[in-house]
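retry 2 of 3: previous attempt timed out while embedding adenine. Reduced batch size to 1 and resubmitted. Inputs unchanged:
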Amino acid sequence: MGYDVKDLSLAEMGGNRVEWAAQGMPVLNAIKDRFSSEKPLQDVRIAACLHVTTETAVLMQALKAGGAIVHLCASNPLSTQDDVAAFLVAREEIPVFSIKGEDRDTYYRHIYQALEVKPHITMDDGADLVSTIHAEQRELLEDIIAGTEETTTGVIRLKSMATQGVLAYPIIAVNDANTKHLFDNRYGTGQSTVDGIIRATNRLLAGSTFVVAGYGWCGRGVAMRANGMGAKVIVTEVDPLRALEAVMDGYQVMTMQKAATRGDFFCTVTGDIKVLRREHFTAMKDGAVICNSGHFNVEIDLEALEEMSEEKRQIRESVEEYRLSNGKRVNVLGEGRLVNLAAAEGHPPSVMDMSFANQALAASYVTENGATLEKKVYGVPEEIDREIGRLKLAAMEVEIDQLLPEQEKYLTSWDMGT
Ligand code: ADE
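retry 2 succeeded.
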């Protein structure tokens, strides 16, 4: 079995941590148990490009229980948990190709190695498998039934491929399920981003000014949690409705140029490039801390920052201090990559439970229905989304009311007025 991980002797520690994560993933465990007996993925080959974390390991176990043959590589060079990679190889016999801190060439070599499984299904977080297949390995298209996509950035890329008529196979946008983005993007990113910032800096958020760039589901979560830690939150936006929502949620909204002079912490979560750039770095206070929680490391213009800096040094783990020619210091966390995964452990198990339940059920759905799908981006079928919501509530022992027949009738009628 081929693999490339840092150190197999880390497997035991990885196994313990995976067991711990699994305790917080009841929905995925229930799916795994059903997969074990029904084998809906028997001999289905899956290439997965995901953050190699304890939660991803539980998903890999579920897919394997369903009969799938899986190869896993990382969806970000800094997010791999090396002990988890070791555990999956040594104890689960799943070929994993990922090492925390790998360079760009190794990152892509690992993608090619994961694709050696000749997938029926691609499982992406950021669409790197889909991009690589379309650009360089089109011979693989022959066997592919469909793909799944985990994140907003990937879904945007894939929808643009579909619009341009270049998408060569159907994709299920797992991100678009309610049981994914309303929880993972908001509560997962909210908590894990603040966790990453605190682990990297050990600075106090209370009383600080915290600038959040972008008020999508992730931005809403980061703003909410920074606020909860006592920071004064400023939101920057380009969309008038989102800006208005941020105002009514109680935050200050202003341009980044203004916010740049006020922030102690800056976190980008927009999915776009150069959100923090030259003119903002110049305006920042001495010692400002900047980081990104969007999928790609493009939101902070690090090239400009390098050019403007006279000196750069690693001052703490995950913190690089840039000294600008104006004498001020700007601190970048996790090389501008996803701070929640680079400096912490990513989203907690209980939200990944729902995200990865969607992944597992989407894989089973396309295995059964792939032939009927067009080369488009589909949402997760509503029955799957609602079922995951029901299972999660049941696992949390939360009971809810049911509509009376009379109430159901009222909701579908139009003739009962005043
Ligand atoms: N994305 C964000 N958090 C994650 C996690 N814990 N595992 C896998 N992917 C993630």
